[in-house]
Amino acid sequence: MLFDVFQQYPAAMPILATAGGLIIGSFLNVVIWRYPIMLRQQMA
Fold this sequence. Notes:
Blueprint: H1 2-8, H2 12-43
């Protein structure tokens, strides 16, 4: 089913890959960079 969509719309794969990368990157940004800073501020 999903493979048929990619065959019909070849531009869908890079668009979905970019959107997924942005979502995962945003989540990792919070977990790796911002969450420890928020924890330090709570302890102070």
